[in-house]
Amino acid sequence: MKMKNKRIKGILSVILCVLMLTLSPLSVFGATVATASGAPPVIYIPDMWDIPLFADPNTAIQQQLYPPQIVGGWGAMFFEYLAIYAAGIAQGEYTAVTNAIFPKLLDWWRPIMCNPDGTSYSNNVGPAHMNGYPMSAYNHNPEKTQLIAGDIGRMLAEELGADRVYPFIYDWRLSPLGHAKELNEIIEQVKEQTGSKKVTIVSNGTGSIVGSCYLNMFASNNNYSDIKNYVTLNSAALGVTWWGDIFTAAIDIDPNGLVRYVNEVSDNIITAPIIYLVNHILRGEWAHYEVALKTDLYIIHQKYNIYEIFLRPMLGYMPGLWALVPGDYSAVNVLSRPSWRNILGGEKKSVIMSTFSEALDIMYSGDFIIDPKLETDIKTYNVIQREALDIMQDMQKSGVNVYVVSAYGLQTPPMTDWATTETSDGLYDTRFTSFGAETAALNDDWVGRPLVRQIVKDGHDHTNAKRTSTRGFTVDASTCALPENTWFIYGMKHNTWDYNSDSQYYFLMWLINSDKERTVHDTVYYPQFMEFNRMTNPGNLWGRSTTDILRFNKMGDCDLDGEVTAADARLALRHSSRLVTLTRKAFRNGDLNGDGEITAAEARMILRVSSRLTTFAQLKKDGLI
């Protein structure tokens, strides 16, 4: 009798599966499902580190110029110059070192240089992408998609469909004002092509500079009515401290910072301890101090020549890089409170007050005269930079869902003693990427200091003081432009969003797919302060000290409604028949045995569970999943 019952149940399951497949609406043929219904198209503006520059882009003979290829000519030149530098510094022949290295470096970089007015030196150099086309234009080629839009672009294409994601690729050397004008035109074009009244904008790193210009120059004119969601990741819109140090000739290698920066280089659990051990031994022998001392002596003797020969013509003509210089401190006074100096120690941060103005004086001193067009461009962006916080708040008040993601706990490059005290994502300062957080000095905290409490009292705890997994009391988000909508990730390096990381993917899509406003209080899985384990492959994002955010997946739930029903079985079956494409989370739920595919057999199992003919526990016990 038991055998007969099992046979009947099996026959019923097959019949039901056939009915699901044949009776399902044909209107979803080929669609991506289990996403936000009616989600607007997404404009993705990547970071400069994800935008290579080519000679003769978009042709059969295109050749990558930036970033330079490590193998071949660049690698050989690096070791040649390193040998020249080491020998010359050891003998104190500073001028000979400068003359041997920097004129050749300038020739090497000349193809990507700019003219004095901020335009490209070479007319045939730029990024390899034509804006206005969705990512489906690349025929779902993962390698091409990765090259054009990086890991974040691939995530967006997978979640929303490649025909709904439009990368906006820009030449990061050139004026962001011009890019903003083109972005405005592209957004109008995308709205017309898709029939959508709004778009979602995702900006990453320096992409937020372009986004900030667009918001200020165009979107604000119609009260941001074209935007549904605006998500900015590790924003460079307010500038970067160590980049300002370069433009103001404030370079002074910090040996302690050099040690710490080298320790943070590796993201591999095997190589990291080796690097740390070697670094520790070298530090014991004072090697880092010797390197820093000799380099500082060289810079002291040759700073003027280096700027005259290389840095001024290389950097001084690029309006896109000028945008990374922090604006006047008085312009971001909304970040300050009476306790600012008590928290940060005396007058130390007052140097920021004149970074942009000082940079102009340094880069354009003596006979080095700035072109009027370039001067207008960079000063205009300086004004936009100073208004960025107000723009973010105004945009939210107009009804746009605005989200900020920042990282902290890592050191910036050890260019100066000052730069190495900044908590950051390894490149960009947390206080800037968060649009205004108060931050303690790196490797320090405010615990036990009676004068320091959360600065803005709004009834919510916006500090990481009680988060044991996110490193003490080091960040106060209450001073941010958007304290309720700003997330912080400890230990996540700049631009390390990984397509293969489910935890990063789910968090980003949780923000992008939002219909109503998300806040840092909505779920325990995405609190204001999270942590990133970069030693795993791929890296893993944690929302709580004991709860991995991947744990809330529900086996069999293919429509992500929290239940396992016949509708889930129908979606799984249609996915296995290539009639629909499930999004990543839905796919993970439907892939019962974790082999990377969903089969008709798994769809039948989901159906049997939904009909209470069995359970997933029993299927595991029987060895079926």
What is the percentage of strand-forming residues? 5-15%
Number of helices: 21
Shape annotation: globular
Spatial order of strands in the largest sheet? 6-2-7-8-9-14-15-16
**Could you describe the largest sheet, including whether it forms a barrel?**
8 strands, mixed
pLDDT < 50 runs, ≥5 residues: 21-37, 329-353, 545-551
- Counted beta strands: 17
Mean of the pLDDT scores?
82
Structural class: alpha/beta
- Measured as a percent range, the helix fraction is 40-55%
For the termini, the CA-CA separation is: 26 Å
Rounded to an integer, what's the Rg over CA atoms?
27 Å
Give the SSE layout.
Elements: H1 2-23, E1 31-33, E2 42-45, E3 53-55, E4 63-66, H2 73-90, H3 94-109, E5 125-126, H4 142-160, E6 165-167, H5 176-194, E7 199-204, H6 207-217, E8 227-233, H7 241-247, H8 255-263, H9 271-284, H10 287-315, H11 319-322, H12 340-344, H13 355-363, H14 372-386, H15 388-397, E9 401-408, E10 410-411, E11 423-424, H16 430-433, E12 438-439, E13 475-476, E14 486-490, H17 502-512, E15 529-533, E16 540-542, H18 566-576, E17 580-582, H19 584-590, H20 600-610, H21 616-621
Parallel strand pairs: 1-17, 2-6, 2-7, 7-8, 8-9, 9-14, 14-15
Antiparallel strand pairs: 3-4, 3-5, 10-11, 12-13, 15-16
Helix pairs in contact: 1-20, 2-3, 3-10, 5-6, 8-10, 18-20
